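hey all, quick one before standup. I had two proteins in the batch that finished overnight and I want to keep them in one place so we stop losing track of which output belongs to which input. First protein below, input sequence then structure tokens straight from the run.
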Amino acid sequence: MQSIDFNLFKFNLFDVLDVLLVALLIYQLYNLIRGTIAANIFIGLAMVCLLYFVVRALNMRLLTGILGNFMNVGIIAVIVVFQQEIRRFLLLVGRNASLQRNRAWWRYFLGKTDVEKDNYKRIKPIIDACKSMKQTHTGALIVFVKDYDEQIYQNSCEVMEAKISKRLIESIFQKNGPLHDGAVIISGNKIKSASCILPLTDNTDLPPQFGLRHRAGIGVTEANDATAIIVSEETGEISYAKQGRVKMNISFAELEKLLNKDY
């Protein structure tokens, strides 16, 4: 009778840690592409890989050669196709490595209550402006970025470097104003620029009522470590976009929670 080698089933602490880290990495990658066009691309690449192994097993030499050439440059193809998702993943890793440590120091020295009060002072003018624009059906797109890249935004924006205030945000998005057509970029405690032209999302599964403002707000969160508030000009509905996904018709209480968490 053949004996079973039980050494194959022995695990140590590092094996468990290895599995947990791989699971965490896969989960983070899934969160990055979930609900975006990248998910469909990933499924397409997986189907091509599966087809390659099938035709190779069936000894179909022509298809094996064609798909084999694709497999040989597979890593390069993945980097090219998923460059935005890879960039967002690296930004996420870097942000968690630095800001989470700083946040812990803030809470240690100032206390959690003081930090929450400081955050509320920062977001209150934004929420008040959104309330006013919702009532008047004033279309708006407000983008929050962790790291303001001048090369990306200043080429298509009007530089402001202004203190955040309710009246300033409202005046920017007035329908007859020269800066209303585009997005406002906020970083830190300042409005960095206005009237910004942003790239549109390639996602084809969005609701049909979404116009250019919504598609631009979703698109900027796909390509950058950013979040966006979109106020609909037609309905006054407020939406919140993050990592290429959007929450529609959110309340002001929910908006405050989201801004406290992300901004």
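OK second protein, same deal, sequence then tokens:
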Amino acid sequence: MNNWPDGWTDDGRGRAGRGGPPHPEQARVMPHVRGSVPRQSRGGYGDHDGYADDGYGRGGYGGDRYDDRYGRAGYRDDRYDDRGHGGRDGYGGYGGYDGYDGYDDDNDGYRGRSAVGQRIKRGLILVVLLVLVLGVGTYFWADSKMRREVDLAAVEQRPESGRGTTYLIVGTDSREGLSEEERREMRTGNSEGSRADTIMILHSGDHGSSLISLPRDSWVTIPEFTGSVSGNRIPEQQHKLNAAYAIEGPELLVRTVEHNTGLRIDHYAEIGFGGFAGVVDALGGVEMCFDAPIQDKNSGADFAEGCQTLNGPESLAFVRQRYQESMGDLGRTKNQQKFLGALGDQVASPTTLLNPFRLYPTMGASLDSLVVDESMGPFRLAQMFLALRGVQGSGGTQMNVPVANPGFSTDKGSAVLWDEERAAQLFEQVRRDQPITVTDD
């Protein structure tokens, strides 16, 4: 029969300490003097480093001494937590290093490291949610403001779709929304209605962006068409290109461009005088550089040589001026291409897209002013501005349709006659989304 107290064995080694001397029953161990056993750490042996009365302490290591029985709940709170390692000042009983809070109550890892990770995680989730909410809100706001007034489905006998995306961009002389004072400042006159003042094909594909001007006085075939308003059948006729817009608006203009180029127009965007100036002003102006002074009393253009930032009315005066140009209307289209490229570059630049105080006014002005087709959405509109920006890049192209006779005489006055062979080759390269090799020289 073993006469030793519980927890002791016959071989003289107690469980409470390796190699400890056996104690007779009821014998009590004198507590060690504080400091008689070197302290390992605050989280190691208890404050008094003493052995417990008769076995392992309930809290395991830690406390003033070992408790009466084997530990049931794990290590003590102050040095070891209830379920796992811990420490008041650091790695629990393994050294008390500052900077770590020890294991937490659920044994999930170091408390400090876990807290930092949780804060970072919550911050990232909050940022993602804010961006998502802002993006969705902006999309629906922009979508609700778009003026989808052009029905491309009403266009007859359309060509097959080509590769890439083709836009028809039209600038009109509409004075819509302009006050009398603004009309005087911009020298727009007081003509009623609107006429197509600028007509351009913008193509975006695998080989970059191309911006091709179609002079408004181009002598073309206006195909027969059923008017969407009057319902009358409009007969086929030879006329200037901008006459199609005057006769039956955007739909007949799209029909005429498709008929004469063989290109299918995927999207349509139109802006008037006032809207154009408003977009420029909302953007904070557009920087332009001139090789020589420009003066035109008819449009009001008056610019010194060098680089300068043009406001809305000044920009309108620049793109309208043509009397100083040696090529007349063809020279004006070159200026318009140059300006639209600079405008697109600034609208789609990070300084605009990442600055809400510039982005939202520009978006608001654009959406209020642009008339687009029914299938145009905010994303497609953004892609159009990116394509405009791309025309100025290394892979971009800006040109007029090749011309055989810029002063072709007709019964409708002087017109521009296309070079049919080179024009056909150019439009075929656009349709197939091939690199542009045709020039307008």
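Flagging for whoever picks this up: The radius of gyration is 41 Å. Confidence is low (pLDDT under 50) at residues 1-30, 32-105.
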